[in-house]
UniProtKB/TrEMBL annotation:
A molecular-function term among this protein's GO annotations: metal ion binding
Record flagged with keyword Manganese: no
PANTHER family noted in UniProt: FERREDOXIN--NITRITE REDUCTASE, CHLOROPLASTIC (PTHR32439)
Protein source organism: Jeotgalibacillus soli
Protein name according to UniProt: Ferredoxin-nitrite reductase
Length: 517
């Protein structure tokens, strides 16, 4: 190890911390060929958790030995060979299931240990990796999914995201963080990267320095969801884009060396920032970076929640990018192959993924847009979805997730279908469903958040139910949604939501959103 683990002397380290000191999480990647050769039963139970560092979780029930794999997609940018490789993995090993996550990554299910070496080989051949996609490590870096095409972004951030991502990939100096660690880097003026809910975010900023207007970043730190959500706060600093990696390393070093390691539920960077405040954090940051200029102006206009439906002009004249809905973020492998073919025929082969679990096909010449849209797949994966289906987000849920209490994806899809049949509104309502108090589906920032739980019915049987939360947004500084009274049994959920939305429709002014209401 190139660095001193100063926290290792702390007697109050939790059990996971002690295990991480005994074996670095990334080392599991070296063990996988042995386990693949010898089968699932050769993996000691105490090693199961370390598979997260390889981007692998055991899906439910763990004893069956099937893995979920998350693949990093920095900024959500995928080339045609990458899309085809991912589709091939889903088809050959993942029973065809291809999920887009709320951090632009791709998830597979049903993988067996014997298959992992070949999957790693296929990913590596096209420059993809699942290393660090889970675990107490820097996760995939969220970015502007239209960077490089975006007529309004301050500057192209694709190379910066790649530089920062490459630095942290399989870097054992930063593979033992106190908890998961999420970065975003974007200069999209509609906050497409959901800056405030990341541990640390680089966001668009301008500042006049020596009479010259400079474009760069502000730094927000300490955001995160789960049971105790926090919005990231802005550090009083202006960051030259050329110093992004240096600052990212400094922030990560502070988290690694000063983050809390006694109680896992209090270990995220957000808790350190909540205790220190951003002023103290800046002082510590400057011990690594030297003095940083104070912050400038933030040109962010509004929040688009990562939605890009429709046909849009790119900054390159004559080219368009098209935003499509992927219902609850799930495609099958054949659809992904088809999208790769189409993106190659009409665009440059790229596909981009969004935080909203949707996708973008860029670089389509204007005169080819109609022909592209006539392809049959775009009857389901549409640029103009029905309102509720088009704004329905869901986590993995009980189908595969060990922590889940309830079904999510299919239920969210059914809820959206029914609401589209029964209610018409003049504004979209973003609805996010999660299967437990964790927040993979980012329930807290939804107009309507639905959080699953188990309750007893009158007959004392355990049934699936949901709490309803309303009014979340990242507009105007951001606010998390608030819980309504009661727990709604799954079978009553649709009717309760219809009543709630009918009330909203009757009482609101024209154009008024859930946040304004
Ligand atoms: Fe699983 Fe909970 Fe995350 Fe949903 S929010 S995927 S149920 S851990």
């Amino acid at each position: 190890m190139a660095y001193v683990k100063q926290w290792a002397e702390n007697e109050k380290l939790n059990k996971t911390e002690i295990a991480k000191l005994e074996k670095d999480g990334l080392k599991i990647i070296d063990d996988i060929p042995y386990y693949a050769e010898n089968g699932f039963d050769s993996i000691p139970k105490e090693q199961w958790d370390l598979f997260k560092w390889a981007g692998l979780y055991l899906q439910r029930p763990k004893e069956d030995g099937y893995f979920m794999m998350r693949v990093n997609v920095p900024s959500g940018i995928l080339t045609k060979p990458q899309v085809e490789t991912l589709a091939g993995i889903a088809k050959d090993y993942g029973r065809g299931v291809f999920d887009i996550t709320t951090r632009q990554a791709i998830q597979f299910h049903w993988l067996e240990i014997q298959q992992i070496p070949d999957i790693f080989k296929r990913l590596e051949a096209v420059g993809l990796s699942s290393a660090g996609a889970c675990g107490d490590i820097t996760r995939t870096i969220v970015g502007n999914p239209i960077t490089g095409l975006d007529p309004d972004e301050l500057f192209d951030t694709s190379a910066i995201v790649k530089e920062v991502y490459d630095y942290f990939q399989r870097n054992e100096d930063f593979s033992n963080l106190p908890r998961k660690y999420k970065l975003s880097i974007s200069t999209n003026l509609k906050n497409a990267s959901n800056a405030e809910i990341n541990c640390a975010s680089f966001t668009p900023a301008v500042k006049v320095i020596d009479g010259v207007e400079k474009k760069g970043f502000h730094l927000k730190v300490g955001g995160g969801l789960s049971a105790r959500p926090y919005l990231a706060q802005t550090v009083d600093a202006f960051i030259d884009p050329e110093r992004t990696l240096e600052v990212a390393i400094a922030v990560t070093t502070i988290f690694r060396d000063y983050g809390y390691r006694e109680k896992r539920h209090l270990a995220r960077l957000k808790f350190l920032i909540a205790d220190w405040g951003v002023e103290k954090f800046k002082e510590k940051l400057e011990e690594f970076t030297g003095p940083l200029p104070s912050k400038g102006e933030e040109p962010v206009e509004e929040w688009n929640a990562g939605y890009f439906y429709g046909v849009h002009d790119q900054k390159q004249e004559g080219l368009k990018f098209l935003g499509f809905n992927v219902p609850v973020g799930r495609l099958d492998a054949e659809e992904v192959f088809e999208l790769a073919r189409i993106s190659g025929k009409y665009g440059n082969g790229e596909i981009r993924t969004c935080n909203s679990q949707n996708l973008i096909i860029p670089n389509v010449p204007a005169e080819m847009v109609d022909e592209l849209l006539a392809e049959p797949i775009f009857e389901r994966v549409t640029i103009n979805p029905n309102s509720f289906m088009g704004h329905a987000v869901s986590c993995t849920g009980i189908e595969y997730c060990n922590l889940a209490l309830v079904e999510t994806k299919e239920r969210m899809r059914h809820v959206a279908l029914e609401l589209d049949n029964r209610i018409e509104l003049d504004v979209p309502v973003r609805m996010h469903m999660v299967g437990c108090p964790n927040s993979c589906g980012q329930r807290q920032i939804a107009d309507i958040g639905l959080q699953g739980m188990k309750v007893r019915n009158k007959e004392k049987q355990m049934i699936e139910a949901y709490e309803i939360y309303v009014g979340g947004t990242l507009n105007a500084g951001g606010q998390f949604n608030e819980k309504l009274k009661g727990k709604i049994p799954a079978e009553e959920l649709n009717d309760v939501l219809v009543n709630l939305l009918q009330y909203f429709k009757a009482e609101k002014n024209a154009g008024e959103s859930f946040f304004d209401f």
